[in-house]
Every structure is written in C-alpha cells, then in structure tokens.
From TrEMBL:
PROSITE patterns membership: DYP_PEROXIDASE (PS51404)
Keywords: Heme, Iron, Metal-binding, Oxidoreductase, Peroxidase, Signal
Similarity-based family: Belongs to the DyP-type peroxidase family.
Dyp-type peroxidase C-terminal domain sequence ranges: 201-382
Stretches assigned to the Dyp-type peroxidase N-terminal domain: 46-190
Source organism per UniProt: Streptomyces ficellus
EC number(s) given by UniProt: 1.11.1.-
The protein's required cofactors: heme b
Subcellular location field: Cell envelope
Protein name (database record): Deferrochelatase
Length: 396
C-alpha cells in the first residue's frame, strides 16, 4: 500500500472550481477545467486504470440475483455500458435521470467494470474463467470480512466532483434492476485538483507521500506489466487487467504517537517530500546498500519502501491507484479510516501476491494497518465503438 499511486498519476491537475456568489444570477460562465475534463468510454483499455487519481471515488460489488444467468448478465452489461458512456460524457441518463449532476460537466468521471471468480459459475462460463482469478492466498495479517469481500461484479467510479460521482453510483445501482443486488459498497476520496500550488504525488491519511514507486506509462514494459496481451488463453481479456481491491484500515491513533523520525524509519522515506532516506528527491532511486556512521542500513531492512520495492521482489510491480476512506468515528473515539487499495496488473500471481507475501513476513508498517476486506476482479479491455463491456466474453 505504501507505494500507492504513481509519479504519472498525480493530483492537483491544472485549474480549479469557479467560485459563485450565493445571491448572484449573472451570465453563465464556461465550465472550469475540472468540470470540462472528460475521459473516453471506448478504447483499448477501460477508463479508470491509467487516468490521474480523482477527488472522489465509489467502489461497489454486486451479486447476480437468484436465477439470473448469462442472458441476464449480458443485458445488464449492455445497460451499464450505455449508462456509463452517457455519464462519462456529462449527459443525463434517460428521462428518469435524477438531475443530481445536471449543472456539472463530466469532471473526469470514469466507470470501470470487472468480473469476480463467482460470476463465471453463475453464468455457465466456468470454462472461460481465467486462472488469474484463482483465490488469493491467505495472509497472516488479514482480518477479512467476507460480507465486504469479493462479489460477482465490481464497479469502480471516480470523478473530480462528489455529486457527479454519486450520480454515477446511483445510476449504476438503479440500472442493475432485478438482475443484481449490491453486495458491498465503499466510498473514498483524494485531494481535489488545484488544491496544491503545483501537481504533486498524493498523500495518504498517515501524511505520507504515497505513490512514488509505481510503474510509469512511459516505461517500455508498462503495458506488459499492467495489461493482458492478445493471444492469451482467454482472448476476451486482451487489453484488460486484474484489479486487487483491499480495504486497509489505518490505526491512526497508534501511528500518530510515533515521532516523525520514527515514522520515516517505518516507511523508508522522508515525510516532508517523499524522498528516500538515502537522499535526493522523491524520484531518486533508493540506495538500499547505504549505511550510516553507525554501520546500520540507512533504510532499515524492514522498512515498507524497501520490502515492497520491485528489485526486492523479482521485479514484481503493480499500478496502485487508491482512494482514502473515512467511515466515521467509533464509540471509543477511534477513526474508521484508511486506504481503499486498488492495484492493477496483468497477473496478480506475479504482481500483488509476491509483494504481499513478503510484506506479510516482516513489514514495519504492519502493526499500524489492518486488511479488512479483499477482492480480485477480471477487468476486460475497453469496448470498441458499438460494443458493451464484456461482450466478447458473454457473446463468444
């Protein structure tokens, strides 16, 4: 989780929301850059994977209704895809549209769809279930709630405006009709575009710069690591990716008792700017062999950044694109807050799994976090013009 986000997935995009006087009804003004930014629905990959982090997010999993099968799933994906295309263009969805987002533009809205392992058995498509959807191994630090894990279908919604994001969530729920019911739903957020003086990598709720070590789209092997190539055993997944979703609660009361210097030792990076403890800037490579005057490693051997580094895991890498969450304060005053961890990779067995196994064995951050929910979803490639998401699976 500590390397969530990417150098290329930065917050603080240019522009900011226009301020309106509460009593003025002057002439209309153009949408700000935040409101006017749109993301195409069609393309080789689904939207919501490589786009910059958005200010607001919703994750929701559905289970197909009893008796619903392949036919009903195909009809559902047609409805969802048609609705998502309109929503991402900033347009209302039919005459029954609630009007929640009526005054806004698309606001970088993305709607991303995925299938869980259980989807294939319920639709008679077990032979087309990818082996990459085999259950994730158990980790000793897991405290997973089955009711908030997995699901037949998964939808990720992100936007730079909370009302636009909610409108999309509500529309997707209504369009499910009788074919599927919500299994679980989670809400997240990030820093709003324009909130910083210049674009910069996100911070998580621990105050750490969180997103430095991600693979970058400019890397020559980026597509190989993140997207499923054509010609695989499941052709319908070409251009797709696998999403590992984890609700990671941060034990903030314990974390905030640590002095900043100790927090930096746990992470292996400076809190102020995200630079490695071995020096330089945020993007400077860590010198994992460097020792201090006392002869000890400058970046401790159990530091989160060291253990999760690709060079420490046989090159294993994921594109981490998370949201923070805060779901209230408990009776004991403890905040229910943390990270909605979302990691994208061409194969979770070579991406997420080896890194998490190593973190599970001795990460200094482990005492301050708790994995409370988990899911793994196959996210097909983007639909071509005239296609709906998953059509190559459901109609093959």
């Amino acid at each position: 989780m500590g390397a969530a986000g990417a150098t290329g997935l930065v917050l603080g995009a240019a522009g900011g929301a226009t301020t309106y006087a509460a009593t003025a009804a002057g002439p209309g003004t153009a949408l700000s850059t935040v409101g006017s930014t749109g993301v195409p629905f069609h393309g080789p990959h689904q939207a919501g994977i490589t786009q910059p982090l958005q200010a607001r997010g919703h994750l929701v999993a559905f289970d197909l209704a009893p008796g619903a099968g392949r036919k009903e799933a195909a009809a559902l994906m047609r409805r969802w895809s048609a609705a998502a295309e309109l929503l991402m263009a900033g347009k209302p969805v039919g005459e029954a549209d609630s009007g929640v987002a009526l005054d806004a533009g698309p606001c970088s809205l993305t709607v991303t769809f995925g299938f869980g392992a259980s989807f294939f058995g319920r639709t008679g498509l077990e032979a087309r279930r990818p082996v990459e959807l085999d259950p994730l191994p158990a980790f000793s630090s897991d405290r997973l709630d089955p009711a908030r894990s997995n699901g037949d279908l998964w939808v990720q919604i992100g936007a730079d405006d909370a009302l636009v994001a909610f409108h999309a969530l509500r529309t997707i729920q209504k369009e499910a009709g009788l074919a599927a019911k919500v299994r679980w739903q989670m809400n997240g957020f990030n820093r709003s575009p324009g909130a910083t003086a210049h674009p910069m990598t996100a911070r998580n709720l621990m105050g750490q710069v969180d997103g430095t070590g991600n693979p970058k789209p400019s890397d020559p092997d980026f597509d190989q690591r993140i997207f499923v190539p054509a010609g695989g055993t499941q052709p319908w997944m070409a251009g797709g990716s696998y999403a590992v979703v984890r609700r990671i609660r941060m034990l903030l009361d314990d974390w905030e008792k640590l002095p900043p210097a100790r927090q930096e030792q746990v992470i292996g990076r400076r809190k102020a700017d995200g630079a490695p403890l071995t020096g330089g800037t945020e993007t400077t490579e860590m010198d994992l062999d460097k020792t201090g005057p006392n002869g000890r490693l400058v970046i401790p051997d159990n530091a989160h950044a060291r253990i999760s580094a690709p060079e420490q895991n046989g090159g294993a890498a994921m594109l981490r694109r998370p949201f923070s969450f805060h779901d209230g304060i408990g009776p004991d005053g403890t905040p229910d807050a943390g990270l909605l961890f979302i990691a994208w990779q061409a194969d979770p067995l070579t991406g997420f799994v080896p890194v998490q196994r190593k973190l599970d064995r001795g990460d200094a951050l482990s005492p301050f976090i708790r994995h409370e929910a988990s899911g793994l979803f196959a996210v097909p490639g983007g639909p071509a013009e005239g296609e709906y998401v998953g059509q190559r699976l459901l109609e093959s």
